Amino acid sequence: MTDQRPTPHERINFNLRPAKRIERKLIGEALACIYRYDTPRRFAYVGMGSYYFSDFILFHRLFGLDKMISIESDIDHEARFLFNKPFDCIEMAWGTTSEQLPTLSIFDERPVICWLDYYSSLTDSVIGDVQTVLRRAQPGSALLVTLNSKGFESPQRLRSFKAGLAPETLRLSNESLLGQGPKGVAAFMTEVLIASIEPTILDLNAGRVEADKIEIKQIVKLIYKDGEPMVTIGWLVLNAAQSASLDAHPVALDAPGIALFGAELMEITAPVLTFREIAYLKSILPNGLSDAEFDTKVGVIPAEDARLFSRLYRYFPSFADVEE
């Protein structure tokens, strides 16, 4: 029997999620800084574009990528996906990530920016996907993983989560899960992913000379919430020369509170503001004012919301009501 429940891309308008859009722009700028001494156009992009292909549009415009692959299991709506493809360079790969990632030839041809943007929490299947990408990715590639980090406030929710993980996977962390909120769940999932990745890297490097050995560097660990809380963890896959070059040329974003290559979980909070409030705040930014000095200029706008906006305003999405 066919599952008639609406899929996430039918329930969620991915164009209207401000925190997610801020996250995409932050990650796009981070990769642009990291690849500034490379030729990113030679890369490919592998993602899960939904009907909206928002990440595909971002990376195509940012890097001029001409090889992009969207993995999609909802083949019942194939015609709608094809209709909404924004560029001819996007190829659809029909099936699950577990089916498609081991077979995509693009991993053999060029470095890849791969964003596994799941709707679900961590499962053994997700861990398998991450290990597959790391085994196949060429040096210089980037891997991003987004997971649902909803808290375990009830035993039922925790049981449901544990059902997707083998007992040996759960033993990779000593954290107590019941009662954990989104940040605790995000920390647990990150710890388990890293512990699962380490044996894969050791296997990859077995028998390799030092210059050819692979290492991974964590780029970001971000938590955000538009509806349910989500966490994104990102890594670079590097050889020795690339790692040394990155160490010699540090990368930083002009976004207070958002640090690259840090171990801390960073939070993206998109304040709820009117169009008029956004326009006014933009008109007085940037500035070198302290928080206290800035607060005196924001008028009727809640000071906390104004400060949040000031830290991320360059990445804040612009929405407009256009009638045709």
Radius of gyration: 20 Å
Number of domains: 2
* Count of separate DSSP helical elements: 14
Which strand order does the major sheet show? 3-2-1-4-5-7-6-8
Average pLDDT figure: 89
Features:
disordered N terminus; Rossmann fold; globular; 324 residues; 8-stranded mixed beta sheet; 40% helix; 2 domains; alpha/beta
Quick overview of this protein structure:
The chain has 324 residues and is of the alpha/beta class.
Give your account of this protein's structure.
The protein has 14 helices and 8 strands. It is α/β, with parallel strands linked by helices and 324 residues long. It has an 8-stranded mixed β-sheet with strand order 3-2-1-4-5-7-6-8, sandwiched between helices. Helix 7 links the parallel strand 4 and strand 5. Helix 2 runs parallel beside helix 3 and helix 7 packs across helix 10. The longest helix is centred in the middle third of the chain and has 24 residues.
Write the layout of secondary structure elements.
Blueprint: H1 8-11, H2 18-34, E1 44-47, H3 54-63, E2 68-72, H4 78-84, E3 90-94, H5 97-100, H6 106-109, E4 112-117, H7 124-136, E5 142-148, H8 155-162, H9 167-170, H10 182-205, E6 215-225, E7 229-238, H11 240-248, E8 266-268, H12 275-283, H13 291-295, H14 303-312
Parallel strand pairs: 1-2, 1-4, 2-3, 4-5, 6-8
Antiparallel strand pairs: 5-7, 6-7
Helix pairs in contact: 2-3, 7-10
